[in-house]
Amino acid sequence: MALSVGEIVNGKVTGITNFGAFVETEDGSRGMIHISEISRSYIEDIKSVLKIGQAVTVKVISIADDGKVALSMKQLEKADANKKSAANRKPRTREPQKPRKKYEPAPPVTSPGDFEWQSSSSGGSFEDMMSKFKRTSEDKMSDLKRGESRGYSRRGNGGGRK
Asked: What is the gyration radius of the CA atoms in the chain, in angstroms?
């Protein structure tokens, strides 16, 4: 009798490797259970879960063109767990929802925080603001250059290499 995908069969473990276990079914077909298809929980060592000669019930999950049969014990666990949980599950009752508050938009933002975009003393044109910016920028740059010539270092090592 040939195996078909989705079929549940009984068999015996004939070999164990690091990556899975080989199973011979009752009809003489052989397949492999990958370590990820043995259990829903993490398995560090297959030999702690399966033994050679152990009888197992497996589900055929795929059959490759070259005849390799992939088996799963995990998918049977899911089916059993779903049946048990469905039997123990209580019917859900829906609680009435509280009425929602009417949407009120947030008040408009007048200024972003405490940042002052323009100083109150200077209400000049764009050119005035640019010239002020350039002047302060040049002052800062000259201070930095003067500090470099004296051996000033931001890291505080007192003059750097000499």
From this structure: 38
Q: Is the pTM value of this prediction over 0.70?
A: no
What sign does the dihedral 119-120-124-125 (CA atoms) show?
Answer: positive
Q: Residue 13 in contact with residue 23, Cβ under 8 Å?
A: yes
Q: Is 111 helix (H, G, I), strand (E, B) or coil?
A: coil
Task: Choose between 131 and 78: higher pLDDT.
Answer: 131
Q: What is the DSSP letter of 143?
A: H
Whether 70 contacts 32, CB under 8 Å: yes
pLDDT tens sequence across 35-93: 998 888 888 888 888 999 999 999 999 988 888 899 998 888 866 656 655 566 666 67
Q: Which two tokens stand for residue 106?
A: 């947030």
How far is it, in rounded angstroms, from Cα 13 to Cα 50? 8
pLDDT score for 53: 93
Determine the Cα–Cα distance for residues 151 and 15; give it in Å rounded to an integer.
76
The 3-class SS string of 64-110 reads: CCCCCEEEECHHHHHHHHHHHHHHHCCCCCCCCCCCCCCCCCCCCCC
Between the CA of residue 99 and those of 55, 95, 96, 102, 105, what are the distances in Å?
Answer: 59, 12, 9, 9, 18
